[in-house]
Every structure is written in structure tokens, then in C-alpha cells.
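Page 37, continued from 36.
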């Protein structure tokens, strides 16, 4: 038996949100926009966008709409699971009926188990380490 693990460092940052979620502008947002205005060339699109955002920040209460998931967001884990689920299924893995975070694949006489034990650290168990290396290199 062979056990392997891998880490997806930005797992929670890859998910597209299905809901509309808004947040307050992050700390130092105004300072970052000011730096962009000062450092960008005249008439650059980035500079114009930063100037427009600064104007809005100074004249009204502003919120930011999230396009992708963030760490700490309640939906982040569910979004990451959906992405991982579709990828594993595209390789032929099937979730077990007893635990939706445990997947299995059969390759001939070999059984491969993939357990998502932590949102960013799936683990793979196989009767052959050679098969695991092939699977991880895809």
C-alpha cells in the first residue's frame, strides 16, 4: 500500500461564487489606489480606473463585490469541494455513498482511494505507488 498527499496552496481562491457577496473595501485600499495614481503613466486605463475608484470612495459609502472565493468566506469550502469533485469525476473517480469526501477508482485489479481530509490536502491511497505517480502527474 502506498499513501501520497498533495497540497493545493490557493484552493479557496480559485472558486467562482454563485451568490452575490459584498464586503467593505479592505484596509489600505485607498492608499493602494493613491499609489497607483501616482505611479502610473498619464491616461493609462489603470490610472483612470484608480482615480474613479478614489472619487467614489471619497463621496459615498462603497462596498466591493467578490468575484471569487476568499479564505474565511463561508462559501469557500463548498466552492472548493465542487471544483475538486468535478475534477476527480472527470478522471473517473466516484464518491463513496458513506462519505462524499472519499472517492474511489478501479484500475484493473488496483483500487485507488482519494480522501479529501482538509480543504487543501487531498490524500491518495493505492496498492501501487507507480499508479499514484501517474495519477499525480496528470
Amino acid at each position: 500500500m502506498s499513501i501520497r498527499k498533495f497540497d493545493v496552496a490557493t484552493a479557496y481562491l480559485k472558486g467562482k461564487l454563485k451568490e452575490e457577496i459584498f464586503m467593505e473595501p479592505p484596509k489600505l485600499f485607498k492608499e493602494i489606489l493613491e499609489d497607483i495614481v501616482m505611479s502610473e503613466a498619464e491616461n493609462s486605463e489603470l490610472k483612470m480606473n484608480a482615480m474613479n475608484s478614489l472619487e467614489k470612495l471619497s463621496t459615498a459609502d462603497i462596498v466591493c463585490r467578490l468575484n471569487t472565493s476568499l479564505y474565511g468566506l463561508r462559501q469557500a469550502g463548498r466552492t472548493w469541494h465542487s471544483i475538486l469533485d468535478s475534477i476527480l469525476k472527470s478522471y473517473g473517480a466516484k464518491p463513496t455513498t458513506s462519505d462524499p469526501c472519499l472517492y474511489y477508482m478501479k484500475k484493473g485489479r488496483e483500487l485507488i482511494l482519494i480522501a479529501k481530509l482538509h480543504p487543501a490536502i487531498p490524500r491518495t491511497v493505492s496498492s501501487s505507488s507507480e499508479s499514484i505517480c501517474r495519477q499525480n502527474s496528470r
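Residues 22 and 65 are 4 Å apart (CA to CA). Flag for discussion at group meeting. The two ends are 21 Å apart (CA to CA).
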